[in-house]
Design a protein that fits this description.
The chain is an alpha/beta fold. It has one domain: D-Maltodextrin-Binding Protein, domain 2. Helix content is about 45%, strand content about 15%. The relative contact order is 0.18.
């Protein structure tokens, strides 16, 4: 379901503005953890095949990813820092913020070693 949500989110963004209609390459800033997860490597070929648009991924930290978006250097930003995202949208830099995924941290070990 989450994979489908990201593909749908990217597809929706593709058709939301004139820049996308004239631009065969979508520039995506994202976090290194998202890029390293393998998610984009799985989803982007499917997205590119379905839309005919190539996605150029710029993998950086959240702050830099948002800054690239503020500067107009990218078309789509995929990050995971809710407060920074809310501020980004509230300041007018972005629109239509969506939840796509979340981090889940699990500590594993024996109960005898808290």
């Amino acid at each position: 379901m989450k994979r489908r949500s990201l593909v749908l989110a990217l597809a929706a963004l593709t058709f939301t503005g004139a820049a996308f209609a004239q631009q065969p390459v979508i520039r995506l800033s994202t976090t290194t953890s998202t890029d390293n997860s393998g998610l984009l490597g799985y989803l982007l070929p499917i997205f590119e095949q379905k839309t005919g648009n190539k996605v150029h991924v710029i993998s950086v930290g959240t702050g830099k990813a948002l800054e690239l978006s503020k500067n107009g250097d990218v078309d789509v930003t995929l990050v995971h820092a809710r407060q920074a995202e809310d501020k980004f949208v509230a300041e007018g830099w972005g629109v239509d913020r969506r939840d796509v995924m979340y981090n889940d941290f699990i500590v594993v070990g024996p109960a005898s070693d808290p």
